Amino acid sequence: MVKTKTVFVCQQCGHQAPKWQGQCPGCGEWNSLEETSLTISAGSKASSAKAKVLTFSQIESYEKARVKSNINELDRVLGGGIVPGSVVLLAGEPGIGKSTLLLQLSDSFANRSICYVCGEESPEQVKMRADRLGAKGEGLKLISAVDVDEIIIALSDFKKDNLVIIDSIQTLTTQDLTGTAGSIGQVRESASRLINFAKKNNMSMFLVGHVTKSGAIAGPKILEHAVDTVIYFEGDQYGQLRLLRSVKNRFGATGEVGVFMMTSSGLEPVDNPSKLFLSANQKPIAGVVKTVLLKGTRPLILEVQSLVTQTNMAYPRRLAKGMSRNKLELHVAVLQKHLKAPLFNQDVILNVAGGIKSEEPAIDLASCLAIWSSYNNKAIDPEAVVFGEIGLLGEIRPTSQEERRVAEAKRLGYKKIISSQNASSLLKAIKMLTGSK
Ligand code: TYD
Ligand code: MG
Asked: Which ligand is nearest to the CA of 102?
């Protein structure tokens, strides 16, 4: 007989308590007890069955079994397609387009059977969205429920289903726990039951997870270790651009980026994103520099913009969007020391255009040049692309995968490429780009 019991476990020290308490009696940490279910099998004893030993050469690779989703940008992020039996967590802020993407996926996947569990919206709402997207929804089954155990029983009728979509994991609950939907205990338990089910039945599963304001999925990143792949859907909610980024992938490279535009008829994959991130205006303007950054395996040409103006405060402001403020402070310090740019009384604002975030060292050169250009009101050649890490001595250092960056710049017709290969210092780079001192 299997009986389910719950205990409250401290997430810091593992202390177990029968009831919730504000402070853990074990370690003194506040608010760290989470309800967890324990499954006790009466009369259980150590298993005497032998674990299976596999011969390496007999193991089938997943690679052949991958199924293309027919949305190129999604396939790219997943590492080449959906692996049967894999569980993917699709995380993103509310309203970013997760449900839209998955509904489009179910349509492009039309020849396979898909089960869409809509805990968040009614089936009518899903149908309305599908109509708006022009999705036919052939082979699409909907389950409108929030009880994870009921859902699993319903799903076992569709064993041959290739794909299950759970929208969203935060709406699911199990009656074995007392917490409300969305609480850490409920999310973890529901996810673990679904993941076990998917693995046992070799079904692919997409779990939608909402990201809280602080960027964590359902509180602390409790689901990330349990699933095979974690992809984040991000972008400016008010802009049209959406980026799909893999942060964990057991079946492919991480850091891979898929680019979409949100249009009135749903998400459209962008095949040549480098073009999209560049402004149409290609006249020389002070404060704009083009760089090439790597997003996963894909190089992207981006604009780094800067605005330097005299401050009217005691402490000058340093604002960076798309790059960390610490990096910006470092670049300002290098410019002050090695280019004698008196930025101590200047506000410096930096923006990586297109809503891309990057902490890559390769962005350093473009950032320094953009600030220099805006401060001196001298335009940098719009036909040039620069990349390279800036050292504390103002020197340009090599970065990873330089050939790929150069190839992308050349592909898009940029002839002037400045990097550690042809410029040793920031000063030299400026001379090459402006023809002045
Ligand atoms: P949605 O997929 O519901 O977001 P999520 O599931 O991540 O919460 O997408 C919501 C937004 O997308 C909504 O604000 C409207 C917009 N949208 C479009 O612009 N075009 C469309 O065709 C669709 C379906 C949605
Ligand atoms: Mg949704």
From this structure: 1
Structural domain span for residue 197: 64-271
Low-confidence stretches of the chain (pLDDT beneath 50): 1, 219-220, 437
57 belongs to a structural domain: no
E strand map for 266-393:
266-269, 288-295, 298-310, 318-321, 346-352, 384-386, 389-390
**What total of structural domains would you count in the chain?**
3
The enclosing domain of 162 has a CATH number of: 3.40.50.300
Contact of 20 with 6, CB cutoff 8 Å? no
Are 206 and 164 in contact, with CB atoms under 8 Å apart?
A: yes
> Among 93, 99, 100, which is best to mutate for testing ligand 1, by the most ligand atoms less than 8 A from CB?
100
Q: Residue 157: what residue type? A: D
* Integer-rounded Cα radius of gyration of the chain: 26
Q: Is the CB of 238 under 6 A from ligand 1?
A: no
Contact by Cβ (8 Å): 99, 167: yes
Which among 267, 259, 337 has a CA at the least distance from the CA of 298? 259
The pLDDT assigned to 220 comes to 45
In the chain, the N- to C-terminal Cα span, in Å, equals 83
Same domain? For 287 and 337 the reply is yes
